[in-house]
Amino acid sequence: METDELLEALDSKLEHMSSSREIEPERIRPVTIMTRERRQLGDLEKDLQEVLDTVKYDERIPPLLTRLADIHLREANYSRAIILYEMTLGLDSDQIKAWISMGLAYYMVGDPKDAISCFGSALAIDSENVTALVYLAMAQLKKGEFDECNRNLDTALHINVNMPRALFGKGKYFRARGELELAVTWLKRSVQADQAFLPALMELGSIYLILKQYDNAIGVLTKALSIDNEQPYALATMGDIYFEKNDLETAIYYYDKAVSIKFDDPELWIKKGDVHRNRKAYQQASHAYQKAINADPEHVESWVRNGSVMLLMNDENTALEYLNTALALAPNNADVAHQRGLIYYSLERYDEALSDFDLAFSVDPGNPTHLYYRALMLELLDRNLEAKRTWVVAQRLFEEIGDASKAAECKARIKRIS
Q1: Which residues are CB-neighbours of 225 under 8 A, at least 6 positions away?
Q2: The total number of structural domains that make up the chain
């Protein structure tokens, strides 16, 4: 295919496939079925890649690359989207939309630092771009930079007082600060500005769930799902509501729908696994947790969850393998070290259990439970003087946190050793 013919074919295909809708993080999701048209676009993209060095200075290339990147971003193919945005911005660095979209891609992969850099580049070109200001604020919120976040949201609202996403951002900000009633107020303002603004409805549903206002939560989430019936996080929050209401069958129904759409999110698989675990359907729970691992092999909690359910299935050796992997991924995670210590304890490998409880306490010295089990291991290893000293410290820490029952148990064990 000749170069001009290739570029025209790409332009035509992108014109047909590109959405005029602004890219919204809530609507980004992986493709479950690759259509014939999407495969054809993929083939054209490969052809372009082969000749790109010879045509990259053609004025048609930057907008083509940007639109290709947008397709990948909408499909949650973040790495490819970022590569294409970097290429197009290398050719034309004044593309504000490309800077914002690349920042959004970094934001979605959990890289707020690079996201902030991209949004900053957009604002260097247009200091009053409210979309860039709001997404910059959201990235700052993810980094815990509350003052900067709030300042940028106020600037955005000064420019556009009724911008739904800026109002939504204020709701997110107040939620992060623990001020839930204020968060609800701002989110309601966002919905008033745009009754079909999906993110605000979803966030309202999530906060109503925290406040245990289940009817309100179901009401706003039902509205959200009438706008987008394949919104995985609205579906998942519905599942959370019914899980809390102990309607496990309905919870499973919603989680199943969520993971069928957003199959690359380990947190959604964990939610499904937790319901099965609650129902004592341990094999099904393990299957869901394994799907979480497949979605992200470096997701520590997925390995921990599968290890814990293996213990419930009396498969201690497999449980230990899962916890070993989890601790390799997070060597300073006190909870993982403690759980592995419990497995070693059950296997009567007391020295190894002691090492894990020591590690857990070194990372989390305010938690006397680590010391409680450390003392138990020392007793089992006939190291009674060390055990007694550990029980004394554990008793004091339990008293400090107001756990009278555990403090009394520690005191009784001290007397018995003495």
Answers
A1: 231, 234, 235, 238
A2: 2
